[in-house]
Design brief:
Layout: E1 6-11, E2 15-21, H1 24-30, E3 37-39, H2 42-51, E4 55-60, H3 62-73, E5 77-80, H4 87-98, E6 102-103, E7 115-121, E8 127-132, H5 146-150, E9 152-158, H6 165-180, E10 184-188, H7 192-208, E11 212-216, H8 217-224, H9 229-236, E12 242-246, E13 252-256, E14 259-263, H10 277-290, H11 295-309, H12 321-329
């Protein structure tokens, strides 16, 4: 088998985030589900944008954030996702390539514009996301570069992408191509509401296509419809090679067969914005795995990456994760 050119290739929604502060009263007045991601249409997106205060625009998308954090750690990443041939599409393309990430998915010349996500951050640092998928819904199996998949140690898939029908086929094609090339497949469940919508299909994905599963406490409990985290821990055992389960301030738990590792969360002076915490954790974990570290060390790197991201507004690192890991691990 040829030596891979990339550590991780991410397949996901290419989104430009719009971050703004809001309070619980605003969320209630607009009927928004706090802490969740909700899909909206173009008209709803325009209406909400007109009601929020000053906002900051930056490239986002769950898997894209993970690949961006991987690059900050010193890993080699690539990304597959759809943008439109418009200004925001060019912003996304520039931002991810500037990090050293390979991104060559052709933009759409027609159809919906580049996707946007309005992220409302409340004073408790929780984020409520209203997402207009735009061009993301046009991702299809033909956009999956099987050569790129084969050239990557791990293919990382985001659960958010499972909504559009064509993207479902693209995800399965990517997973099949990775395994045909002897590579690993990783999936993030993304959101408990996402799990609720696609539970049976996600269970099938985990059983038949996934080697490394990422989920937070609410997501894994929702997937297996159990009442406690401990029950979900037992339920996921044996369904995939590795399950990395995050628990916010309680840290994370990694399960691999009979192997269990409990990892503390990294201390943070002040939690400012939890957007992208899970994405950064996945980046650190995958970086650790591809660099040959053990599962406990990989999870620790994930915790360090997540701690950096939640200490500021925005889902991508503002300081070198590579330097932070060296400082913390020696």
């Amino acid at each position: 088998m040829a030596e891979p050119s990339f550590d991780v290739v991410g397949v996901g929604n290419a989104i430009v985030d719009v971050l703004a502060h809001a309070d619980d009263a605003f969320l209630a007045a607009e009927g928004l589900a706090k802490g969740a991601m909700t899909l909206i249409d173009a008209a709803a997106a325009k209406d909400l944008y007109g009601k929020v205060g000053p906002a900051v625009e930056c490239s986002g998308g769950s898997a894209a954030n993970t690949i961006a954090a991987l690059a900050s750690l010193g890993g080699k990443g690539a990304f597959i996702g759809k943008v439109h041939d418009d200004q925001l599409g060019e912003v996304f393309r520039h931002d991810i390539r500037a990090l050293g990430v390979a991104f060559d998915t052709p933009p759409d010349a027609s159809g919906p514009p580049t996707a946007t996500c309005l992220i409302l951050v409340t004073p408790d640092a929780q984020r409520t996301m209203q997402t207009f998928l735009g061009a993301c819904v046009t991702l299809e199996p033909g956009d999956i570069d099987e050569g790129l998949i084969a050239a990557s140690r791990i293919t990382y898939l985001e659960g958010y992408l499972w909504d559009p029908p064509g993207a479902k086929q693209a995800i399965v094609k990517a997973a099949d191509a990775a395994h045909a090339a002897g590579r690993m497949v990783s999936l993030s469940l993304s959101d408990p509401f996402c799990v609720d919508r696609h539970r049976d299909e996600f269970l099938d994905l985990v059983d038949h296509h996934v080697d490394i599963l990422f989920a937070n406490e609410r997501e894994i409990m929702s997937l297996y419809q159990v009442g406690s985290f401990d029950e979900s821990l037992q339920a996921v055992r044996g369904h995939c090679r590795i399950a990395a389960l995050t628990r916010s301030e309680k840290g994370s738990v990694v399960v691999a067969g009979d192997e269990i590792h409990v990892i503390d969360a990294e201390p943070v002076a002040k939690v400012v914005d939890t957007t992208g915490a899970g994405d950064a954790y996945a980046a650190g974990f995958l970086f650790g795995v591809t660099a040959g570290h053990g599962l406990a060390a990989a999870a620790r790197i994930g915790s360090i990456a997540a701690a950096e991201v939640i200490a500021h507004m925005g889902a991508r690192p503002e300081t070198s994760l590579r330097a932070l890991v060296r400082q913390s691990l020696g």
